[in-house]
Amino acid sequence: MGQTVSNRYQDKVVCVTGSSRGIGRKLALRFAAEGADVVINYFRNGDAAREVAREIESLGRRVLLVRANMAQEEKIVAMFDEIRNAFGRLDVFIHNAASGRNRSAMEVDTKGWDWTMQVNTRAFLVGAQQAAQLMPQTGGAMLALSSFGSDHVFPYYLSVGSSKAALESIVRYFAIELADRKINVNAISAGAVLTDALDHFPDMDKTLAEVERKMPYHRMVTPDDIANLALFLCSPEAEMIRGQTIKIDGGITLLVP
Ligand SMILES: NC(=O)c1ccc[n+]([C@@H]2O[C@H](COP(=O)([O-])OP(=O)(O)OC[C@H]3O[C@@H](n4cnc5c(N)ncnc54)[C@H](OP(=O)(O)O)[C@@H]3O)[C@@H](O)[C@H]2O)c1
Fold first, then answer.
1. What's the gap between Cα 221 and its chain centre?
2. pLDDT digits (tens, 9 = 90+) for 89-100
3. CA–CA dist 34, 54 (Å, integer)
4. Which positions are annotated as active-site residues?
């Protein structure tokens, strides 16, 4: 099915953490295509982030490019100061950036655990507090990117899975506390999403063909599928969906393996 491009986000300001690559990059581009000015945040891949910024500027939208490590509270606060200076407000905050140390449960060390929690979870706590202060009285939206590891067990996924479970919980608390201020807060959860990251795995074509055969709808979830849902959840059309984690899975999680 083709994409519908509207101007739902005309002149809104949208911040997407971790938007130099993958799903975050797609979210930034799709919000810009619907009229938003975008804050692109990155950490290690400045060239990729600058490329996203160029693409957005070519759509006629403004971009603020911010290098900020989501593991550091002061960098997050400084990013919101930059947003205040550049735009004077924020309409949508999306915490997409994620990192993690993949270890078996018995091998998880507290350094890797702390890093994963800081980037994936604490950054949303700090970011949501900052973002709310920049949102207009007419309201706004926040979104967090979660994964099926929050309530399922995957190999070497303890730290990331736990960080996402806490993230979903934080989403619920902010959703209730910020409802009076017309700020809507939700999460999107996905399993494997078709991004460039999968290109690095050997025999990926074969593995993907096998996964697609098993998928009820016979295709993988793509970053555009995530963007379609994000554009809806952050819009006034979704105002009665609050504090929810919406699974996007093509139906696969309904099947017993
Ligand atoms: N891809 C999937 O299959 C999948 C499935 C379920 C959920 N998700 C969730 O969707 C989100 C995006 O996933 P993805 O696969 O698109 O990720 P990705 O391709 O690995 O990209 C991660 C992004 O996060 C940024 N990032 C990483 N550490 C950071 C830090 N410390 N500070 C600031 N930015 C940082 C990276 O920026 P730099 O490269 O510039 O450092 C990059 O832009 C994540 O929350 C992930 O858990 C993904």
1. 15
2. 999 999 999 999
3. 16
4. 157, 164
